[in-house]
Amino acid sequence: MGRSARLASLPLSFAGRAVAGWGRRNLAGADAGDVAADTIARNADQLFAVLGQLKGGAMKLGQALSVYEAMMPSELAGPYHEALAKLQNAGPSMPAKDAHRMLAEQLGGGWRGRFLEFDDEPAAAASIGQVHRAVWRDGREVAVKVQYPGADVALDADLRQLQRFSRLFAAVLPGLDARELVRELRDRMLEEVDYRAEAQHQRAFAAAFADDPAVRVPGVIASAPKVIVSEWLDGVALGSLIGTPAVDAADQARRDGYAHTIIESMFSSPARVGLLHADPHPGNFLVLDDGRLGMIDFGAVAALPDGIPPVLVSILALIARGSGAELTELLVAEGFLAGDAEEADVLRWVGALADPLRVDAFHFDRAWMARQGARVANPGNKAFRSTGRALNLPAEYMLVLRVLGGWMNILAQLDCTVEARAIVEKWVPGFAVVD
After folding, report:
1. Rounded mean pLDDT of 354-380?
2. Per CATH, which fold does 96-150+190-231 belong to?
3. From the centroid of its chain, how far is CA 336?
4. At CA 405, angle to CA 400 and CA 411, rounded to 5?
5. How far is Cα 412 from Cα 241, in angstroms, rounded to an integer?
6. pLDDT digits (tens, 9 = 90+) for 264-306
7. How many Å apart are CA 373 and CA 308, to the nearest integer?
8. pLDDT tens-digit map of 413-433
9. Using one digit for the tens of pLDDT, what is the confidence trace for 74-110?
10. Are 376 and 208 in contact (CB under 8 A)?
11. d(CA 269, CA 302)
């Protein structure tokens, strides 16, 4: 009831600020721009503070929205940046006694005997669990991921509640189909509470990337339904580079290399593992001391045993080529688009998102991403009304596109240059911009 009350307070507070702003403009003669900026900032503070405090589905949705910061209108990006950054990286932790109780339930009453050392202070706190640093009984440093008590119940309740308030998020991304985003996240996140499944995903990625010179996946040492013990990785979250410019050419080269690694790991994993890491979030990659990127958190993973679906590959290739007529014909034939939709609108709405695949090397930056956001997420855009709402892609296709879009937004915030086309041509069978 307390969680529901906090979420229910959001639309009431937003409405109250709108009325107060109207009064300040019309009765007190306040500047409309100043009033709007103040209202946006106050809404942002409350919205993301509530999402962060509640953890579970509320915090997870905030994190999902945070990767789209680069697509926000300029008047929103500034006041939202600080609140969003907090959600990307951490949340409030649970008391040590609760963590101990969960460990006893999952690993047995003698759980402390499995460790030489265990730090009660969590190293990180996220949406449905937190991580403690420890030393395993054989001397290895480990990360102990412990799920919050009742996280599964709170998760489902939050997402059901948030679907009712989905219109609130139009203030973050105008035109965002937040209800659909919440629905898809709910499907993924209810899988995340099963840490045994997550451990299996992590083991599969660790085996596939064992010899990769650019990526390290920590091995799993032990697991239970609500606890995972895996190798500790020393590093800093990739998100620490976001919002700060490169200091010199060498630093820019490192950033470009990290971006290359992220894109390659995303497009190669369906072929190498039969799985796709489905949680685009800069906190899920760590910059390690040896220059590699550590890939962590495998709760949100999509099974793609046959790789990226061929139809989706064809759609991506046609968009990259700018083949509007062929694209519309394919979408109509597959039942993804109504036959009376205008073919030009398809490319006008999503065409530029394939820009990285049309050149040998593409520069991702906020200015480019903001232009795409102004078009793709603008409900006043004709293409959005006639085509965006008419498209009906299967859930597994929408998931791949969400992951791709999420990483494009993060790379835009990283400000980097990547040879993306060569990566896709290498790892995605059937993809070719030029026949």
Report:
1. 81
2. Phosphorylase Kinase; domain 1 (3.30.200)
3. 25
4. 125
5. 12
6. 999 999 999 999 998 888 888 999 999 999 999 998 898 999 9
7. 25
8. 899 999 999 999 999 998 987
9. 555 555 555 555 554 445 678 999 999 999 999 999 9
10. no
11. 11
Residue type, 340: D
Return the structure tokens found at 96.
């040590």
Structure token digits, residue 34 = 């100043």
Angstrom distance (rounded) from CA 92 to CA 416: 32
313 neighbors 400 (Cβ within 8 angstroms) = no
Domain ranges of the chain: 2-90+152-176, 96-150+190-231, 310-427
The two three-digit tokens of residue 431, written as one number: 């993809």
> Which DSSP symbol is given to 146?
E
Helices 249-272 and 395-414 cross at an angle (nearest 10°) of: 170
The 10s digit of each residue's pLDDT in 193-216 is 889 999 999 999 999 999 999 999
Query: How many other C-beta atoms are found inside a 10 Å radius of the C-beta of residue 430?
Result: 12
Amino acid at 324: G
How many whole angstroms separate alpha carbon 218 and alpha carbon 74? 38
**DSSP 8-state secondary structure symbol assigned to residue 222:** E
Q: Where are the beta strands (DSSP E) in 232-348?
A: 235-237, 275-277, 285-288, 293-295, 301-303
Only one residue has tokens 């009831």, namely 1
Q: Which of 170, 174, 114 is nearest to 144 (CA)?
A: 114
SS3 of 227, please? strand
Are 373 and 73 spatial neighbours (Cβ–Cβ below 8 Å)? yes
Report the alpha-carbon distance of residue 165 to residue 159 in Å, rounded.
10
Residue 137 DSSP symbol: T
pLDDT the model gives residue 143: 97
